[in-house]
What does this fold into?
Amino acid sequence: MPDQPQRRKLKELCRTRWVQHHDAFEVFLDFLPATIDAIENILENESRPDSLTDANGILSAITSFPFIIALVIALRCLAYIKSLSIVLQGRELDSEEALKNVRHVKDTLQNKRDSVDNFHGCLYEEAVAVAKAVGVDPSIPRRCGRQTQRNNIPADTPETYYKRV
It folds into this structure.
């Protein structure tokens, strides 16, 4: 977040440029509190029903803990892909070196997956800090007897739940 004063607006998510995907997620995470404030301002001052409905839907989505933790995880995992994308776009890279870099990123991500206890703890703490900054409490989604859209993951705490999910 140290770059925040230099940034003035959110970035558009480019469908084809992976480096810009990471940048867009990073800027969105930096501006999440300001984005929430802007949407709340729209809700207070807007009178058109369609705008209110859209603003309520967006606010509800971005202030949910599952969204925040997914955003943090996506951002941290894309960091490995970002560095790979930058290297692969260089002019001086041969195919052997490119394959070596791809394997390195693949091995690093597999290592993170294999040591999920350590990796998840850091990500969860970051997500909790972001959630706290925007006034969201970590929570486990509601469970019911017969779940059809997602699994009923047995967990006592939100951290355990999201690690298993």
